Amino acid sequence: MFKNFFPNKILSFSNKLFSYLIVLMLLFVFVGLIYALFLSPPDFTQGDSVRIMYVHVPASFIALGCFGFMGIASICALIFKIKILPLMAKSLAPVGCLFALVSIVTGSLWGKPTWGTWWVWDARLTSMLILFIFYIAYISVWKFVDNYEKANRVSSIIAIIGSLNLPVIKYSVDWWNTLHQTSSITLTSAPTIHYTMLIPLIIMLIGTILYTLIVFLMRYKTEIMKFKLDKKNKGN
Amino acid sequence: MLSKKVRPRIVILTFLLMLAIAVVYGVLKSLEENVVYFFSPTELYNKEDIPFNKKIRVGGLVKEGSITNDQTSVNFVVTDLNNEIIVSYKGSLPNLFSEGKGVVAEGKLKDKKYFIADKILAKHDENYMPPEVSKILKKTKE
Q1: Rounded Cα–Cα distance for residues A24 and B72 (Å)
Q2: Are residues B111 and B57 in the same domain?
Q3: Separation CA A97–CA A21 (nearest Å)
Q4: Is residue B99 part of a domain?
Q5: B116, part of any domain
Q6: Residue span of the structural domain in which B18 resides
Q7: A148-163 vs A123-144: helix axis angle to the nearest 10?
Q8: What's the pLDDT tens digit per position in B106-138?
Q9: Cα(A161)–Cα(A145) distance, integer angstroms
Q10: For the purposes of burial, counting CB atoms within 10 Å of the CB of A76, is it exposed (0-12), middle (13-18) or buried (19 or more)?
Q11: Residues from chain B contacting residue A184 (CB–CB below 8 Å)
Q12: For A5-17, how does the pLDDT look when each residue is reduced to its tens digit (9 = 90+)?
């Protein structure tokens, strides 16, 4: 499977497959949104503002997931000096950053009617904001540091340090008293979210993952082309 | 299998990672007081240096049947099922504020059992269900 990510394979990654992925993604997002916004029931205390959850949870999942991948890719890149790994991490950053912002904004919109405030400095919200800042830092380094080797090294370190924040985000609600509620879905026990709400959430999650995959593949393809072009120019 | 160049890199990176984890742990541990968003009534009860003049937050469940309104303020009891504390508040309450639900009150302690709040936030728990299901659950409980 990993072989498919090798430069030559990815460049021949056909446009046809992209269109299949896009159609599949649109299908999931369309069905998911209809289900989430119209068919699923309101919550017994939150009412209709529960529907924000169907965007908020997948967005947070992607924001953490992307950075996790970036962290692992950066560690391996520093150790094994595999050239494509930094390009992978670099291609994941913008979409992860976008979803970190979506998570914070939708959370804020939900917090006002539910908690009675847009923002509090509790452990979950603060650590999520820190993740967003790490994303910005990571992207800025690639953007503003001209020397490729230097940008690569600094951004890798940012990704690794930032990854230490991920378990803090995940477990903040268990380790400390926070205003943010604990997870409704865990590996160890039955979900505390009714199945009429769980199904649209899972559909939206799959749609969001597909979207992320598509954006990642497009960026990754571009990054490899740029990298090859740079190499060629240097060679001449 | 690992080449001679790779092995020292793994050692150095592992060492640096451990160091970074230790630093993060140390910082979070020393900032615990600030990382915790609110104290439960029991934590407040067991606390040695009770901050009377500092703004703090106390959180828990609004005790069933404890909400009383007089002309200017609303009083209720916050409980964590072990200890409780009376909270007095003037102002508008969030929509989700109700008996048996989570709440976080921000303000100052008057004494160990009496808290004067200037801000009330409703805390939502991790249970999500449609109203009909909640009705059925309540019925079976009774």
Answers
A1: 58
A2: yes
A3: 22
A4: yes
A5: yes
A6: 1-35
A7: 170
A8: 999 888 889 999 999 999 988 898 888 888 887
A9: 19
A10: middle
A11: 126-128
A12: 666 666 666 677 8
